[in-house]
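hey so i finally got around to running the thing on that chain from the lab meeting. sorry it took forever, my laptop kept dying and i had to restart like 3 times. anyway pasting the input first so we r on the same page abt which one it is
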Amino acid sequence: MKFLARLHPKRYRLRLLFRGSFLLLALAILGMTYFVLREEKALSYQNYQNGFRKTLGQIVARLRHPSGQLALLNPAAASSKPTPLRPLLLPFSALDFDDQSKVQQGIEMSGCLVQYPDNGAACVAIGNKPWAGGFFYVAGRFASPDLQNHPRGDKWVEMAHRVRITAQVRGQTYQWIAPVELSEQQKPSQGLRGRLTGFIGSSGPLLHAKPDKEFRGWIWQEPYCVEDDPAPVSVCSKRSFFSVRLPIAALQGDVLHQPRALWPPADLAQMQVRVEVLAPGEGLPLFDSNRPQATPLFSLNDLAPLLLPGETLQITRPGSHDKPYCLIGSSDSNNDASPLIQRLIGELRVEGGDAPLVLQDEIATPLGNYELKLTGDVRTVNQSLSRVATRISWMVAAMLTAIAVVWLLMEASLIRRIIVLQQRANRVSRSMHLGDGLAQLDLNDLRGSDELGVLAACLSDLLQRVREDLNRERIRAEQEKDMWHAVGHEIMSPLQSLKALHGTDDNESNRYINRMQQAVRVLYGSASPSEAIQSTTLDVDVIDLNAFLHNVASNAHFIEVDNVWYVGDIHPLLVRAEEYALEDVVSHILRNAARYRVEGSRITITLQTTPTTVSVSIHNQGPPIDDEMLDKVFEYGVSDQLDSGANGNRGQGLFVAKTYMAKMGGTIAVSNIDDGVCFVLTLQRAADSKR
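ok and heres what got predicted. didnt touch it at all, straight out
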């Protein structure tokens, strides 16, 4: 129990408050971090869902554009190289190849032009309807000086600009050479326009006088120089645009002989076309569609950058036996987040965080509808937030480290010294309570120039002063004890002589001499009156209380207390008490009653008996005792007279009465009644009296 008392929290509340403040500060930082991350995760989820819907909107808008529909209709183009050229299925039924603006608008809007360096471009495509015929549409542009005309009827074509087209379809090779035949009366300053007359073959003299009737082509040249050519207008390079319709016999046979021919052809991706533009004479082509550094066309793979890591786009054509086309967002290689923080972020629960993210839409094309299914992955949100949290964690760790360092510094410089000071003060307090005197308290190691050091110095000086005062008090107490020894010794000798002169039983003085000897023996050798009274040992015997009280009342005038009346009978009433001690008790109460009674009034002593006890009531008329003093009048040194010490009243009479009554097995009490004060003494009845 003593150990638990030492651990009482009130003794450590300042230390608990100090350390708890640092703990609460650290918990506040951790709590703030937790709630910030939780709110950020909720906002990130909301932003991701909004961005997820926007991503699908961007994909749908891109695929609904003719260039997107071109990519949907030609999924194989996404996995093939841009060269050699392969025919593409247009989102249009056919091209008006005779009209330059319409052809340009159609191929540029659909995005089928493959771009080359030096202003080169080419597009090879077919219409999306089989009734348009088994034709390839070839269009493109190149840069060259003014076009050189091929006169009609001339078997040689090497002196004119010409276009050579080679097509490989189902193991067959088709080749045409198409020289430029300009319209008459044209000026280069106003631009040139001409036909491309197709002859089957590659070069050399034309073997056939008649061109291929199904081959149709046109060419247009701008009158302006290209931007990066500084040469004069007469010799500079100018852009030329050509548009050709190629008859492919294999495809025409499918359309003519098969009423329900599969369109587009299943082997369209295996067909190849090469387009070359040759300058007059021998030399390298002005344009070759098989040259490297061609820019790929827009394909479904170009939608992948729109997808975040973990997102999946699935494109399906209902009713088709083709496998769904899938795109997966590129994985995030920059994974510098802490694995521990990733797990913590994953454990954070936010509203709607577990809901699956799936959006669907539909794209209408000439060949049917395509269904889009976009699936999201919230793990990317966790990874992004984990990277941010990892960077923030260093700041949080730095703040917690700063708190820990400050706490350790405060513990080492302040709390440790306070604990040492408290322990030493407790040691002094325990030594005082145990009566071992003031323990030695050395505070020299705690002295310093700060506040605690000044406090320790003041306490050290104060305790040194108290120690000196205690030494002086001890010396004074020893001197007082010696004085009591001397006084007791000097009083006992005259009392012995008086007892020899008045020691007969019939002499009333003998009774008072015995009481004086007993009082001297009680006080003799004691350091203080209260200590002497409390250490007194009484020899309790059986006395006749009736005879005792008759004697006290009749002799009360000897102690200067007059008009004392005892109301009782003459029959013996035996109680257990010590005669002289009981007389001291009654005498002290009578003196107290005489001091406060109404002048000339009577002090009455009455008896009340029970089978086991006898109560003696001493009543006087006078002022009542204050309620606050009723429980204090029996304490040593308590008196309501400021000069009681000077009059011989030291506030010890009632203290003696209470102490003696307790040692005789009785009690004493006081109470206010209607006309005064009543003291009640309770004693145990003797065995003979009970009968």
